[in-house]
């Protein structure tokens, strides 16, 4: 599956939702020639895209290299006459590398010009149609979001890398390890590929909301005999209008939020521990941030474990539980990323892979034909041995004995191992009569297909 995504997956930009494709210079030239003879084009190198700065040095350097014209924030200028740019604003600067009228015999010059663009603009090039101005409402000046100020005319963006020309989102290389959460190259950096994060769970802090504060409503504080906690609550109660005898359920939302998440404003606290008493005015940290901080900072395994009693696993916010980095989840086949495909049950996946070829182009099909054949065969077999209800992402540690036995059988038979006699004694764990029959049929198919 990883191999399949690496070979025929198409990366989509998370910013625009559009596919991003890498192209060779000759593919770009072909595309430009396809615009038709007589098309007037600017070949541009987008060197600055929506960034703040004055760019004096960059412009001077371009002039030294022999470039004459630039397009800045929607206007063409001779570089020598370019206006001074306000460094507080974002700018767009394209270098005019060439002006051409498309002809079939122009390929060598186009290749040169595009090559120059790619070097200047870090892998990007633009062909802008000189005679196709955009209607004002489709330009950045007319309020269209996500567009460069320079996008005043229809244009085609080329990229030699997998890079979204709008957001700059790049995928260096698409290879199988990008799709493995066990590999640092593919794992979600936020949760290290675990898919979930331990987070303080408010429901575990207040397990019995019917209790009063005095009577231990706040679980992490309930066991302590120190007067500190009650004195803290008393001070908060003065500020937010509750008493120690109040039940958690009777507290206002504001009071609950202050206790759990802390306060922006400063609160006056009065503390007495028998030996001394003192006053202090500070904002309250909040129980949740306090536990989170101590959990991160502590060196004591005991303290960490103690805090973990109030934590539960929440899906990682970055990968929403798919365990892979955004670059991997941006790569899709027939609208789905690999995480969504592995979530399918074996039955659904079998159907999805069965019709997949009709959703791919000829080139993708040619590349994928062998991988697909193997995937489909395994899915069909897993389906035949009665495991159609399992999801592909199911952790092998959570399988029953019978389930894992069937999977082992499926992978051995799927690998085309021959000369092995399977003795399915009665009753083989988890293998039911119907499955034995299915398995036998499969063995037979394997044997016949393997013998010349
Ligand atoms: Zn994650």
Written overview of the protein:
The structure is a single chain. The protein is α+β, with helices and mostly antiparallel strands. The protein folds into 3 domains: 23-160, 2-Layer Sandwich (Ribulose 1,5 Bisphosphate Carboxylase/Oxygenase); 200-308, Helicase, Ruva Protein, domain 3 (Orthogonal Bundle), CATH 1.10.8.280; 344-450, no CATH class. The chain is built from 16 helices and 15 strands. Strands 4-3-5-2-6-7 form a 6-stranded antiparallel β-sheet, with helices on one face. It has a 3-stranded antiparallel β-sheet with strand order 1-14-15. Strand 8 and strand 9 (170-171) form a beta hairpin. Helix 7 (227-240) runs antiparallel to helix 8, helix 9 (287-297) packs antiparallel against helix 10 (301-308) and helix 13 packs antiparallel against helix 14 (362-384). The protein is flat.
Features of the shown structure:
452 residues, Helicase, Ruva Protein, domain 3, single chain, 3 domains, 16 helices, alpha+beta, six-stranded antiparallel β-sheet, disordered C terminus, flat, Ribulose 1,5 Bisphosphate Carboxylase/Oxygenase
């Amino acid at each position: 599956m990883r191999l399949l995504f690496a070979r025929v997956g198409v990366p989509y930009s998370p910013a625009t939702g559009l596919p991003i494709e890498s192209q060779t210079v000759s593919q770009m030239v072909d595309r430009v020639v396809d615009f038709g003879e007589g098309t007037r084009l600017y070949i541009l190198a987008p060197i600055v895209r929506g960034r703040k700065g004055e760019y004096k040095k960059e412009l001077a350097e371009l002039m030294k290299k022999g470039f004459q014209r630039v397009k800045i924030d929607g206007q063409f200028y001779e570089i020598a006459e370019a206006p001074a740019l306000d460094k507080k604003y974002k700018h767009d600067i394209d270098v005019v590398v060439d002006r051409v009228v498309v002809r079939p015999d122009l390929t060598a010059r186009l290749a040169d010009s595009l090559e120059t663009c790619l070097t200047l603009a870090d892998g990007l090039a633009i062909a802008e149609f000189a005679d196709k101005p955009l209607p004002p409402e489709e330009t950045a000046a007319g309020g269209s979001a996500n567009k460069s100020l320079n996008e005043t005319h229809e244009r085609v963006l080329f990229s030699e890398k997998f890079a979204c020309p709008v957001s700059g989102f790049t995928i260096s290389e698409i290879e199988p390890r990008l799709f493995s959460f066990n590999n640092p190259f593919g794992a979600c950096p936020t949760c290290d590929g675990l898919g979930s994060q331990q987070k303080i769970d408010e429901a575990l802090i207040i397990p019995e909301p019917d209790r009063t504060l005095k009577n231990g409503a706040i679980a992490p504080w309930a066991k302590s005999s120190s007067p500190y906690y009650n004195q803290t609550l008393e001070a908060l109660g003065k500020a937010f209008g509750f008493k120690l005898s109040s039940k958690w359920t009777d507290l206002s939302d504001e009071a609950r939020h202050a206790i759990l998440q802390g306060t922006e404003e400063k609160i006056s606290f009065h503390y007495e521990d028998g030996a001394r008493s003192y006053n202090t005015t500070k904002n309250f940290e909040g129980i949740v941030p306090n536990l989170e901080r101590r959990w991160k900072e502590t060196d004591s395994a005991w303290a960490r474990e103690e805090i973990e009693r109030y934590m539960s696993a929440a899906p990682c916010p970055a990968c929403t539980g798919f365990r892979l980095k955004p670059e991997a989840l941006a790569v899709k086949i027939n609208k789905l990323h690999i995480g969504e495909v592995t979530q399918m049950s074996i039955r659904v996946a079998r159907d999805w892979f069965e019709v997949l070829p009709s959703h791919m182009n000829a080139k993708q099909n040619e590349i994928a034909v062998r991988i697909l054949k193997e995937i489909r065969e395994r899915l069909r077999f897993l389906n035949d041995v009665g495991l159609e209800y399992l999801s592909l992402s199911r952790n092998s540690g959570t399988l029953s004995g019978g389930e894992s036995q069937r999977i082992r059988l499926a992978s051995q038979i799927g690998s085309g191992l021959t000369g092995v006699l399977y003795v399915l004694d009665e009753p083989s764990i988890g293998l039911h009569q119907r499955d034995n029959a299915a398995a036998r049929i499969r063995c037979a198919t394997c044997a016949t297909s393997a013998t010349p």
